[in-house]
């Protein structure tokens, strides 16, 4: 009876394994897994299917191949499976690769973030590089105007023409813009951290441009080589921004924002930004984040900062106390946000809604306070903080109902393996292996 049961279990397992099929690439280099109707219109590989929709290639567990064609017939979608031998698959992949190299070489690359990269580069070039370079170089007149338009054009045409055959993901575009924009602040911080003996008003612009370009290249490469997701890029950005902001607030609160302490202030901002990015990386690595989650995390971090700062303002506390409480509140808020986002994924639009509901309520609360013409800043900050918190809570409550829920395994895990109950396992020379082979039930709790 025991052997019969074992045989039935094994037959069931083998039947399940045989039913499994794996999607395999249609080209020789392993990048194209599906040929869409748009791509097929350029390749012309399946002209025998006039209403072609898509093609995929599957490999069965018995090493057989199936070419699956989805087409439209009489307002219905029809799926056709064509068996293929290994030799036919080699020929198919050769034809697909040849057609792609001749008619659609860019289809081999991930361009989901390419448009964003080009737009972001245009913003940085026209909004900063174009005029900062002439200022740093002491240009004026025609030379400065000419340089502005040349730099702007280079910032647009360079990414547009140079990324045609490169993988540009959304994370790559996000990190490129983050390095470019925050690199401006980092460059100015580097200049003052070097504590120049003479304060040259043009020099910080030069440092800002150079640091911005260097950080763009570095973060772009990091995102590309690590396969970074858009969610991780968003969280790293949130951490870095809070690092910069809180460092600047602490420097101001402790009276370091002046000529005598420019070295300390510059070092403080650089260290805070680095620590924030490292913390953001750790949060992303220990959670499941989307780009929308990044907006939500930013929103609750702002709430954590604004509430204690507003209370200190109303209580007329000094700058040191206010800055310290704001920094501590931000850290608490980010920690709570990490916990809230553990089991839910927000889309970009949902996360954006939560963040701007917070800003909208804060702005709305300022209206009656402004109308009352109060001279003290306390009512303004308290009204904005409390209303912003209410706006975040309302936005989160509404959008979380439609956000995607993540079903994660709990700390308590239970595993059942029936084979030790119906089979006999011979002892080996490894006691640990023998113990595991004879375990039918495993109960684990992770603290």
List its traits.
single chain, about 450 residues, alpha+beta, 4 domains, 5-stranded antiparallel sheet, two-stranded antiparallel sheet, 9 strands, disordered N terminus
Task: Please describe what this structure looks like.
The protein is globular and about 80 Å long. The longest helix is centred in the middle third of the chain and has 24 residues, at 170-193. It has 447 residues and is α+β, with helices and mostly antiparallel strands. Helix content is 64%, strand content 11%. Helix 6 packs antiparallel against helix 7 (203-226), helix 10 packs antiparallel against helix 11 (319-340) and helix 10 packs antiparallel against helix 13. The chain contains 15 helices and 9 strands. The strands form 3 sheets. Strands 1, 2, 3, 4 and 5 form a 5-stranded antiparallel β-sheet that branches. The two termini are 41 Å apart. The protein has 4 domains: 21-108, no CATH class; 109-228, no CATH class; 229-408, no CATH class; 412-445, no CATH class.
């Amino acid at each position: 009876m025991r052997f019969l049961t074992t045989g039935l279990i094994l037959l069931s397992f083998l039947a399940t394994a045989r039913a499994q099929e794996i999607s395999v690439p249609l080209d020789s280099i392993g990048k194209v897994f599906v040929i869409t109707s748009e791509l097929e219109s350029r390749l012309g590989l399946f002209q025998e299917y006039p209403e072609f929709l898509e093609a995929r290639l599957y490999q069965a567990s018995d090493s057989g191949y199936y070419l699956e064609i989805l087409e439209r017939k009489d307002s219905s979608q029809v799926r056709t499976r064509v068996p293929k031998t290994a030799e036919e698959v080699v020929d198919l992949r050769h034809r697909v690769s040849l057609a792609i190299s001749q008619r659609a070489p860019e289809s081999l690359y991930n361009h989901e973030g390419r448009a964003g990269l080009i737009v972001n580069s245009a913003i940085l070039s026209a909004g900063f590089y174009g005029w900062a370079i002439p200022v740093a170089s002491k240009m004026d007149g025609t030379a400065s105007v000419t340089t502005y338009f040349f730099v702007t054009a280079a910032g647009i045409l360079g990414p547009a023409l140079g990324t045609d055959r490169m993988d540009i993901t959304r994370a790559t575009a996000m990190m490129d813009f983050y390095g470019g924009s925050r690199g401006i602040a980092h460059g100015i911080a580097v200049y003052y951290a070097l504590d120049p003996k003479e304060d040259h008003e043009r020099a910080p612009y030069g440092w800002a441009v150079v640091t911005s370009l260097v950080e763009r290249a570095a973060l772009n490469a990091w995102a590309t080589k690590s396969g970074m997701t858009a969610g991780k890029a968003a969280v790293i950005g949130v951490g870095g921004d809070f690092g910069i902001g809180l460092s600047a607030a602490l420097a101001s609160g402790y009276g370091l924002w002046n000529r005598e302490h420019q070295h300390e202030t510059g070092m403080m901002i650089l260290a805070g930004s680095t620590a924030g990015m490292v913390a953001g990386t750790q949060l992303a690595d220990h959670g499941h984040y989307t780009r929308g989650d990044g907006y939500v995390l930013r929103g609750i971090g702002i709430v954590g900062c604004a509430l204690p700062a507003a209370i200190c303002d109303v209580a007329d506390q000094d700058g040191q106390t206010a800055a310290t409480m704001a920094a501590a509140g931000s850290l608490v808020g980010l920690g709570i946000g990490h916990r809230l986002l553990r089991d839910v994924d927000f889309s970009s639009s949902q996360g954006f809604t939560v963040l701007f509901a917070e800003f909208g309520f804060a702005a709305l609360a300022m209206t009656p306070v402004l109308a009352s013409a109060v001279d003290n800043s306390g009512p303004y900050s308290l009204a904005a903080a409390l209303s912003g918190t209410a706006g975040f809570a309302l936005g989160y409550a509404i959008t979380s109902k439609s956000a995607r829920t993540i079903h994660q395994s709990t700390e308590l895990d239970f595993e059942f393996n029936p084979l030790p109950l119906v089979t006999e396992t011979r002892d080996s020379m490894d006691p640990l292996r023998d113990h595991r082979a004879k375990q039918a039930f495993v109960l684990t709790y992770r603290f």
